[in-house]
């Protein structure tokens, strides 16, 4: 029977980092981008309600997919213990974007354009959508084992990495 509790979550954390270091592609990415492994994974277990969550933070995810305009903020798995040893998973991948506009125009010494916000104040030439204004890709599925949960988590990261390199 598979049930997410603190002990299983601790095992997930250990296996996650072990698998990350043994994954040739992701380990290379972690080393090349100097990813701080202490900030990569956040887990939570609510023993009373049987809910847990796993978040792979932007510290790793932005390095998996960031094309200069769109990047990944996080990969979040919400887990719920169901009966019969099944864990229901809702998975969200949160993206943010940055749009840059052309450089400002100057005509001679007399005419200079600046970017201004809706209040008329000078601002940057970029619009940045962060977690509060972002796009989310979502899926729901069931897992019957910790190995399957790890497999799916790493398959998601590898699929996103493939999309970045296409």
Verbal overview:
With 166 residues, the chain is α+β, with helices and mostly antiparallel strands. It has helices at residues 6-22, 24-32, 58-64, 146-164; strands at 41-46, 51-56, 70-81, 87-100, 106-107, 111-112, 126-129, 135-143. Strands 1, 2, 3, 4, 7 and 8 form a 6-stranded antiparallel sheet that branches.
Helix content: 25-40%
The helix/strand series, from N terminus to C terminus, equals HHEEHEEEEEEH
Task: Name the structural class.
Answer: alpha+beta
Rg: 21 Å
Structural features:
166 residues, alpha+beta, six-stranded antiparallel β-sheet, two-stranded antiparallel ribbon, 8 strands, 33% strand, elongated
SSE inventory with pairings:
Elements: H1 6-22, H2 24-32, E1 41-46, E2 51-56, H3 58-64, E3 70-81, E4 87-100, E5 106-107, E6 111-112, E7 126-129, E8 135-143, H4 146-164
Antiparallel strand pairs: 1-2, 2-3, 3-4, 4-7, 4-8, 5-6
